[in-house]
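idk why but the lab printer keeps eating my pages so im just putting this in chat instead. protein + iron/sulfur cluster:
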Amino acid sequence: MTEKNLSPVEGIKTRSRHLRGSIVESLREPLSGAMHEDDTHLIKFHGIYQQDDRDLRAERRSQRLEPAYQFMIRARVPAGRCTSAQWLAMDQIARTWANQTLRLTTRQAFQFHGILKRDLKPSIAAINHALLDTLAACGDVNRNVMGTTLPFPTALRGQINDLCQRLSDHLTPRTRAYHEIWLDEQLIASSVQEIEPIYGSTYLPRKFKIGIAVPPDNDVDIYSQDLGFIAIVEHGELVGFNVTAGGGLGMSHGEFQTYPRLGDLLGFCTTPEVLAVAEAIVATQRDFGDRTNRKHARLKYTIDTLGLARFKREVEARLAHPLRPARAFQFTHNGDRYGWQEETDGTSHFTVYLDSGRVQDTPTQQALSGLRAIAEADLATFYLTPNQNVVLGHIAPENRERVQALLAKHGLGEAHISPTRGLSIACVGFPTCGLAMAESERYLVPFVSRLEALQTRLGLADAAMTIRITGCPNGCGRPYLAEIALVGKAPGRYNLYLGGAFNGTRLNVPYRESASEEDILLTLEPLFVRYAAERTAQERFGDYLVRTGVVPAILVGTEFAQVAQTLAERRSSPAPSS
Ligand code: SRM
Ligand code: SF4
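predcted complex ->
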């Protein structure tokens, strides 16, 4: 690949002096609420996105004002684990500089929306003061490392948490740019010659994501991760991990060379080998990933271009030894487990459901105040789940009643969420996401309520179905793994995808294009009727659709793209004349 063909972002990274660019100058610029164009790419590596309030765009334009620029900050939380003190610090930042809400993400991180340019520095300093950070929360590097919040015994979860933290630390960029810009660390003469031992000076071709799952739970959707580690527990002991590579969900409507893809099983490694395996896979992607086209730059395309066998050889060449054969495992569950659960060490935990991860005070639920009260009394450890909820962990027996009372007082305790609502996810979408084509977070509650009404009317009130809504095809709510998914196409219009596996092991299938809510419910109704009458014991909706031939079983990303293309062609070809 010649320098001329490289994507423009590669040039920005190369010129950036290890992610410094002119961020300092952009921050000082008083006349605009925005950053310089090149810096808008670099700040992502620092965990920041430049956005504008899309609800206000038209009005601001009509007043000839620049867009209402504001920033989203994402704080990394490996395995989603944070202390009460850290939760309190995040709550304080949300109320001081952001929009009075906290957003828990599908990758177990915190997001703050609505931060003004002048408030970026104090916000980031406060996050670091709480011993969390935002470096590498976004950008072409390894992002927040996900880890299950579910497994027992408690000691096993501790081991998984520690490993997530070690993976995260190992793959954190070494540049001091972050510390200089946001934490006022003195620029040292040698810093601009600093070395990124793993990434090199142009970092990765694209974002990179790692997760750890513990069967039988697949709450981290392991097959969506660029790199997945599946814990193998034998005789109660963690012996190592099966390794998956090449998962990824982003695609673009109508561009059939882009597709969601499930990770491939590469083999097995022992626990001490995990960091070396991760580094070898990251290095292979660094060396072979496509730096000319950002829509073809994720690891999934690198593997499809090289072929799995060649990719594996390249990984093993970077390791001291080959991967061992994968061990047996089975996933049977996805999503969170709500309400009270007993831990193995005598403590208990409670999982709080939050609509699409938004922590805020509303007339019916005071999640921000309620969780703050629990943190202030230091009654629990907080775990952000991969499904945008929060687990209050390690609650001592003597504190359980107090927690219960605080949950009840704030409308968080006895939430009667239906099985389907409990499995629902929506990405952020409007008004902050610059890529949204349709509503997602703000549409979740109304849509799921209508779906629940339909399920109840057809005798399916107890049927749990994974339902995910995203405002565009990028896949932030992991829609292509859901049994039912709505993916935004235009305001009020969604592509409908059906037939993913409940346990996250199969892609769903494009089923209807540009459908309105009415179209979607009318499409689902006859399928629900048949499912209610014909399902076998314990049969999930997605599996039923595949068994009865309503949709094919799709395990390969390129096949997903073929189905999408056929559907689009059928839609655009003129109806045969009679
Ligand atoms: Fe995402 C871009 C939000 C998880 C695939 N994602 C974005 C941006 C930053 C929009 C942008 O680039 O301007 C969104 C910010 C919205 C906002 O206003 O906050 C955004 N993504 C999110 C979050 C907050 C969704 C949520 O509701 O929780 C998740 C933050 C995760 C985190 O803490 O790090 C989030 N994004 C995901 C996931 C799911 C996952 O990782 O488990 C995916 C699919 C998996 C994958 O990466 O393949 C995902 N986001 C994307 C993509 C498509 C990438 C691709 O390969 O094509 C984009 C667009 C891009 O990168 O160009 C994107
Ligand atoms: Fe934005 Fe699209 Fe991601 Fe939703 S899926 S947050 S609309 S980029």
